[in-house]
Structure formats: structure tokens, C-alpha cells
Amino acid sequence: MALIERYSAYTRWRGEVATRVQQLRSWLTRNEIGDAHTDLRLQCVLDRLREDKLVVAFVAEFSRGKSELINAIFFGGYGARILPSSSGRTTMCPTELQWEAGQQPGVRLLPIATRRHAGSIAELRARADEWVFEPVDLDDAESLQRAFARVGETCLVSREEAEALGFPVDDSGLAGARPDADGRVEIAAWRHAIVQFPHPLLEQGLVIVDTPGLNAIGSEPELTLSLLPSAHAVLFILAADTGVTQSDLQVWRKHVNAGQGARRGRMVVLNKIDGLWDGLRSEGDVEAEIARQVGSVASTLDVPAAHVFPVSAQKALVARINDDAALLARTRIEALESALSEELLPTRQDIIRDSALLECGEISARAGELLHARLVGLREQLREMADLRGKNQGVIEYMMRKVRAEKDEFDRGLQKYHAVRSVFTSLSNRVYAHIGMDAVRGETRRTREAMSGAMLSRELRQAMESFFSTLRGKLRDSAGEINEISAMLEAMYTRLAVEHGLKLAPPATFSTLRYERDILRLERSFNEEINTFASMLKHSKGSLTQRFFETVALEARKTFELANRDVEQWLRVVMAPLETQVREYQLQLKRRLESVKRVHEATGTLEDRIKELLQAEAGLLRQVEDLDALRGALEDALGRQVPPAGHAARAA
Question: Domain check: are 101 and 198 in the same one?
Fold first, then answer.
């Protein structure tokens, strides 16, 4: 299958890149060119390559064939229907299919009652005692089916209980679950399920998300605020026998497209086209009807017709189990798989590639700058030693005084560097004062107090809206401090280059726009999911407060945690070249002074010292060649050029 083959190739590519990055890392350590921070940065690159996940979400109303489509694409080789798929509701809670080495095959189920007290799903993932585990026997298809069927389990509760757990209830059944004759409501027994299954694609980092229908999606805000927006691909499934219903349109607009226009990785699947194969129509009539339905769906959802894929998931599964190539071709499933791999994998590969290029490019450039500085210093020593040939002690003493004067002048100039270092620390602290986790926790606490004390729904909404405006303000304030740091360091880089000839590339820039966009996206979702008149009427103040802090505030905290990590990384990186060059220049001045001293004190002959320096120069030039070779190997693996590192050193 195209998707499995392409994903396997993508996994091999990541492995090859990881090998080349590890080679660069080992070489830097072995030659004492890197440092602890450089080693940590390369380890982060390796971790991203090895732990990369691809999340594909399947979204639809009930009975559209989501689970059967997952069976057809991913489990056709098992000779049986693995995920439960029948008429009615088979997936009652959000379900993730994944695998990591060391897991026990089975299904982890989070009881629906945890919505009352236990926090968000993200917080509960690591708390094994909150989950029910159903093990599976991988050699027994029936065992797999029984375990996987548990995601469809339901329970009957009172209307009050259902509403307290976040399920909308409506006597007509249009806007929520309809109570039975006894006033009880059928709800999902589980809040979330994680299927741990060693499928070849899951082993390579693919994560499949199977979602319930509209009402169940809306009852779990974390799904729409976090899981679906972060998915790399979302397949929205419709049924050819129903077309786009009103509830389908609600799911599409509210949870898949969210009013944001065309988005990469969003595909529409028109399932159950086998219903048109009634034996009474010609093949041409069937094709014409499929084309008509595709056009209608594309027009209704406002997407290109090329993004709508007609398939028969059920017949595709049958074809794969029976190895029926003709039937498989008629189901059109392979066109969907090809589109999925062509849409998803190149985009993800570009992201991974760009990240590795940025980190490895900066590190190799710094290594090249360091080798350049060492060659410049060493060749300066060579010139000084050559100039001393045939000279008397007076000339040697003059040379020694000259080098010592240069060293003293540089040491005095370091006062400016230390002043910049002090201001840098002060500005860094101000950045963290704006976006540090203490500031976020303080704002979260203030918002919770304001919401708890609110007497009117207007005050409640104002407290939540203030939360977002304050967070955006913190990001903007931190951006101002970051710009000031960049300007100060650029001036220092220029001064050192002019006064002492240090070769330094301009400092790396940093922007907070990414995190501001994430907060804006979160606020938009909040306004659609929670900050509505209907939501205010439906939920109590306590329920709204809980939903806000277990979903919205949690996602905001994740954004700021990411911002803190990236800012910390940038602050370390932006100062590192300056610190390295200053240390290296100090060391070179010290070595020059020691060389002249040795000749002056006759502790070694001049020619012996020149010979040592020539050997050291040859060693440095070999290191330049090695660095270029490592960079070339990394370029070959990445398929794109890494910024040059060694050419400046070779020309020194």
C-alpha cells in the first residue's frame, strides 16, 4: 500500500539523518570543538528525529464508516475486521491507536466519571491508576475484537448526571441525547481510550485518532481545542447514501475547518459508494453519479473537488482480506492513500528537515568559526616565530612586550563584554518576568478568583476574555525585550569584529509571533466552544470554570511552556558564539605570549617551535576537511544544503 510504503521510506530517511547527526555530534566531542550546550542541542535534534509522531484523525458523525475506513487502510492484512464496525454507534469516545516500545498490547480506558474531579486527559495520561486496562492476545483476532469493542460501551444515567458530565440533553434528540421513557440518558462509559497495538506504522510513530459523533465531540472540549488542531491530517468522512447532512455540516464547520478556510491536511472522504453498485446501472452511470455527489459535497463544504475522495471502505477491507485486486481498484481506496501520503509526509518531512538544518547549520557554522579563529591565531604565531629567525634578544623582548600589550588591551576591552553580559542577564530576567511560568500561574490564579467571584455571566465572560488579552500582552512585552537583546548583541559583535578582528556571524533572531498565533487560535476556539450564550445557559458557573481551566487554560499553559523552552534555548545559543570567540581569542593571545617566552628563555629552539606549529596547522586543516565531509554527508541525508561551515577556516 502506498501509505505504508511511503511512511516506511520516511522512517528510513529519519534514521539516516539521525545517523549523520550522531556522527557530527561524536566528531565535535572527540575533537573538543563542541561544548555541553552544543551536545545538548544535537541530542534534542536526535530526540525529535527518533520520537517524531504523525497524527491522523478520522472525524465524522455516527454511522459514516470511520472505523471501517481505519480497518481498510491499516488493518487489511490481519485477515479480519479488527476495529468494531457495524450500523449504529461503535466508537463512543475519542480513541487513539498508537504504539511505543515497552508497552503491553491492550486498550486503556478512562472512565467517564473522571470528568467530575480528576483533571484533563493530558494530565491523566501518566496516572495509570485512573485507567482501566484490557489486555489483548495478538495471536487471537477475537481477543483483539473484544478489547477494541469496549470503546463503544455506554451506560444509562439520570439527566442531571449526564449534564453534570458535560453531555447535552434534549427532549427532541436534535441538540443532544434524548432521555428514554424512564428519564435516563445513554452516555459513553469511557471518556478516552488508548489502543496500544504493535502495528508496523504505529511502531514507526503514526498515531491514529478515531473520534465519536457531534454530540460526543462537543462534550470533550480538549478534543477540539487540542487533539484535532494538532493533528497533522484530518479525514472528514461522509456517507454517499446520506450526503452532507446538517449535523455533518456542523462537525465540519465547528470541529474540522473551524471557519479558517482551506487548511493543509484536511481531506473529505465520501464513503459507501458501493451502495451505488446495485447491478441496475451501467458503469458509466455509476461514475456519473459519483462525480455528481463529489461536486455537490465540494460545493457544500467549499473545498476543491480534488480534495473529496469517493471510496468504499467496507469493500476495500474485503478486497484486502481476500486479495482481490480488481475489487480493490473499484473501491478507489488507493487514491485516498496516495493523496494522504503525498499531502502528509512531504509536509512533515519539510518540518523535520528545516529543524535539523537550522540546528546543525548553526552548530557547524560555529565549529567553522572556531576552527577559523584557531587557524588565525596559530598562523599569527607562525609569522611571529618566522620573524624571530636570526633576531637578537632585544627584538625577542620587543615582540614579547608587543604581544603582552595586545593581551592587556584585550583584557581591558573585556570590561565592555562583561557589561554587555550583565545587561543581557538583566534583560533575560525581564523576558522571563513577562512569559515565565510563574507569571502564567499568577494570571491563571487571578482569573480563577475572578470567575469564582463573578455574580453575572457578563462578569464571567469578562474574566475569561481578560485572561487572553493579558497573555497576549505578556508575549508582546517579551518581544520588546528580545528585540533589545538582539540589538545590543549585534552592536557588541560589530565592535569585536572592528577592534579585534573576530569573525562573528550576526546573532540569530527570535520571534514570539508563533505563540501569539497559538493564543489567538485558542481564543477563537474558546469563543466557539465555551464563550457562547447557549453554553452560559446550559452550564453552571462551576461547570464552566472547570471546563475553562481543564481545557483552555491548560492549552495556554502548554503554549507558554513551549515559549519558555524556545526562549531559553535562544538565549543560550545567541550568547554562545560570543563567549566561545572571546575564550578562544584569550587562549590564542596566551599561546602567542608563551611561544615568544619559550624562545626568549631558550627552553626550546625556535625551529622546534615552528615545526610544532606547522604540525598543529596541518591538524587543524584536517579538521576543517572532516567538518566539510560531515556537512556533506548530512546534506545528502537531508536532501538540502547545510549552511557552509569550513570554507572561512580554510581561507584563513
Answer: yes
**Distances 477 to 421, 425, 427, 430, 651 between C-alpha atoms, Å:** 21, 17, 12, 9, 43
- Please indicate, yes or no, if residue 291 is contained in any of the structural domains: yes
Q: How far is Cα 311 from Cα 301, in angstroms, rounded to an integer?
A: 18
Closest by alpha carbon to 48, among 68, 89, 18, 82? 18
Q: How far apart are the first and last CA of the chain?
A: 53
pLDDT of residue 454: 82
pLDDT in tens, 481-499: 999 998 888 888 787 777 7
**Euclidean distance between CA atoms 458 and 594, whole angstroms:** 76
Q: What is the rounded CA–CA span in Å between residue 210 and residue 229?
A: 14
Q: What is the helix (H) or strand (E) element at residue 338, kind and residue range?
A: helix 333-387
CATH assignment at residue 241: 3.40.50.300
**C-alpha separations of 75 from 45, 105, 118 in Å:** 32, 15, 34
Residues 242 and 96 in one domain: yes
- Phi, psi (5° rounding) for residue 510? -145, 140
Residues forming beta bridges with residue 108, ordered by sequence position: 133, 194
N residues, the chain: 652
Total domains, the chain: 2
Q: Are residues 120 and 252 in the same domain?
A: yes
Query: What is the predicted pLDDT for the residue at 645?
Result: 45
Last residue of a domain, one of 603, 618, 633: 603
Question: Contact at 8 Å (CB) between 353 and 69?
Answer: no
Cα–Cα distance for residue pair 111/190, rounded to 1 Å: 5
Q: Do 201 and 287 fall into the same domain?
A: yes
Average the pLDDT over 209-235 and give the result. Answer: 71
Grid cell at residue 22 = 550522531
- Domain range for 563 is 388-603
Q: Give the whole-number percent of the chain exceeding pLDDT 70.
A: 87
**Residue 464 CB neighbours (<10 A):** 23
327/414 same-domain check: no
The one-character DSSP state at 112 is G
d(CA 576, CA 579): 5
Calculate mean pLDDT across residues 317-321.
91
| Alpha-carbon gap, residue 475 to 489, rounded angstroms | 21
CA dist., res. 96 & res. 90, Å (int)? 14
